[in-house]
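[09:14] KT: can someone run the structure on this one? pasting the chain below
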Amino acid sequence: MKIVVQRVKEAAVTVEGKTVGRIGKGFLVLLGVSQTDTEAQADRLAKKMLGLRIFPDAEGKTNLSLADVGGHLLVVSQFTLYADCRKGYRPSFTNAAGGEKAERLYEYFVDLCRQGNPKVETGVFGAHMDVSLINDGPFTIVWEENG
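[09:31] RB: done, structure tokens below
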């Protein structure tokens, strides 16, 4: 399971011109699921992500968590995080989980996030989405949780 966590001032996702998720200060989380991912990986990833201390304190040091600043989450499924670009110019996505498994683990991850944060918005699984954000910093973390 792979995530890209972006600390944002605001973020939104639209599908066919309709806003389906919008947050203020918090994390925009892009989530990719591989063929071999499990609920245990999602458990570890969600717990660690929710506890990340990447917001500045009064002295400007990254000491505050999402909960400390009352931040929100926007979680968007993104199978392209498992693109394999080693051969040729057209990426292969064979490492990404298929629709049913990916959607199940995506929803599982979102449910875990909701247990730890009162405000979680999402995109629409499998839809073509437009994602907009104001990256705060910029501060971006790319992270993979292996079995």
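[09:33] KT: thanks! Helices lie at 39-51, 99-116.
[09:34] RB: yep, looked fine to me
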